[in-house]
Amino acid sequence: MTLSPTSSVTSRALPTLESRLPQRRELLTAIPGPASQELAARRAKAVPASAVSTMPVYAADADGGIIRDVDGNSFIDLGSGIAVTSVGASAPAVAQAVTEQVGHFTHSCFMVTPYEGYIAVAEELARLTPGDHEKRTVLFNSGAEAVENAVKVARLATSRQAVVAFDHAYHGRTNLTMGLTAKTMPYKTNFGPFAPEIYRMPMSYPYREANPEITGEQAARRAIKQMEKQIGAGSIAAILIEPIQGEGGFIVPAEGFLPTLADWARENGVVFIADEVQSGFCRTGAWFASEHEGVVPDLITMAKGIAGGMPLSAVTGRAELLDAVHAGGLGGTYGGNPVACAAALATLHTMEEQDLAGRARGIEELVTPRLRALAEELGGDQGPIGEVRGRGAMLAVELVKPGTTEPDPETTRAVAAACLSQGVLILTCGTYGNVIRLLPPLVIDEQLLSDGLEVLESVLRSHSSTASDLTAPSHVTAAKG
User: Fold this and answer.
1) Which of 124, 217, 225, 301 has the most neighbouring CB atoms within 10 Å?
2) 379-415 tens-digit pLDDT
């Protein structure tokens, strides 16, 4: 069992922030309740089965660390809409900014009649992203769209075609980003052919390295040797990597892996693109995960936490790269929508004002020691927890068959279902489907977070001690918080 090193920051209580909804879990019906079941029946007649949802409950309200469903059940939210609602799902400043902007205009298209909000967001991203070089920003709607446009920029600016991605990567669901994504099911199966000139290299995955002694630099050299042999440095337009991989399993590469790749890219005229769609905006305890090792990307792709839940994404990077693109080469009808820009400015202000990067570090200090202690309690190397890892409020528990490193996706799904039945929403991920990922809102109440952890710990203990049915009580009339 590998347990990632803990933060050196002294543990401290999270300051309490004001919330509109009571910050406690409370189940009033069986899960799913009758209103959710009615919506599910309507959905089955209107929405294709391919558009799946993780949870069988339907949201009616959300605030702070709570999601309330249409039956009145209140769930602890440890997913944040996949790292989107970091400032809360109805943050007052965001709601006010959106309301004010809607009262003026909802759209004019920046390519037709531009507006200040787009420029202001670009200025803020130039200030907040790593590096003091001159930067430019272009805005889009989704993370996949940002990644696709970053690749376009790199190819045009370098006059090269090859793009390097990594094992366990997830970059989106468009044709190009499906090709960049490593996992076939459900993202790629039968959707090809995919865009050409994409090459996959080995990732630094410390828990699953064949050689557990390999350093981050050595793992990077392994990838570099393969790139030089299979592609040739002079043919590579870009290296694209998530500083902490998201859907692939919240994989934190060994120290030295990212800087070594970035240095090689700079030396060989290769554009280094950091996909910070999930790891950005205070999620890992810094504004961007690249900062943990002092990496300054040439281009950064961003989305998710950028605008408090409104659809917005961005590519920010070196001015000479983005300025190399011909007029009209970048853009889109909805890219940088004025309402989304207003939400983004309010979100960034809230993150700074409430020091949400500091709150993310505080969440790590509260959660990680408890999960590590649980791992030891459940048997250490012989238990079901293979690794506890992550940074800030982007944390993961990898579950394995006890005494092995064999992934255990069945137990992972059962744990998530049992937590849901007790009023806690957790997400799973991983190439092998065996990783519990914790992405609580950065504004979550400390007592609420502790309550959610108690449920998760109880479910894992139940599995470890009985190795049997994980079905938990489906009715909770009241809970702590």
Assistant:
1) 301
2) 998 999 999 999 999 999 999 999 999 999 999 999 9
Q: Phi first, then psi: give them for residue 33, nearest 5 degrees.
A: -80, 175
User: To 10 degrees, what angle do helices 257-267 and 216-230 make?
Assistant: 40
* pLDDT value at residue 8: 34
Q: What is the CA radius of gyration of the chain?
A: 22
> Between vectors from CA 169 to CA 293 and to CA 440, what angle results, nearest 5°?
70
Q: Letter for the amino acid at 312? A: L
pLDDT of residue 184: 92
Token reading at 84: 């989107």
**Residues 423 and 26: beta-carbon distance below 8 Å:** yes
- 187 CB-contact burial (10 Å; exposed 0-12 / middle 13-18 / buried 19+): middle
pLDDT > 70 fraction of the chain, expressed in percent and rounded: 94
- Say which residues have a Cβ less than 8 Å from residue 277's Cβ, sequence separation at least 6: 143, 146, 147, 242, 246, 301, 302, 303, 304, 313
**In this structure, are residues 150 and 273 in contact, taking their beta carbons and an 8 Å threshold?**
yes
pLDDT of 351 above 90: yes
Q: Which amino acid is at 436?
A: I
Integer Cα distance of 438 and 449 in angstroms: 11
Name the residue with higher pLDDT: 471 or 68: 68
Residue identified by tokens 């446009």 is 149
Cβ neighbours, 10 Å, residue 111: 13
Q: Which two tokens stand for residue 379?
A: 């048997």
Phi, psi of 391 (to 5 degrees): -135, 145
pLDDT digits (tens, 9 = 90+) for 257-290: 999 999 999 999 999 999 999 999 999 999 999 9
pLDDT score, position 465: 58
> What's at 397, amino acid-wise?
V
Bond preceding residue 193 cis, omega within 30 of 0: yes
β-sheet bridge partners, residue 137: 316
Length, in residues, of the chain? 481
Using CA atoms, how far apart are residues 422 and 459, in angstroms rounded to an integer? Answer: 10
Query: Taking a C-beta distance cutoff of 8 angstroms, is the pair 31, 56 a contact?
Result: yes
> How many angstroms separate the CA atoms of 452 and 2, rounded?
24
Asked if 80 contacts 65 with a C-beta cutoff of 8 angstroms, the reply is: no
Provide the 8-state DSSP code for 407: B
CA of 121: how far to CAs of 245, 391, 431, in Å? 26, 26, 34
181 contacts 170 by C-beta, under 8 angstroms: yes
CA distances from 149 to 155, 325, 328 (A): 10, 11, 13
Q: How confident is the model at residue 12 (pLDDT cuts 50, 70, 90)?
A: low
CA distance to 49, 178, 290, 427, per residue, from 52 (Å) = 6, 18, 32, 14
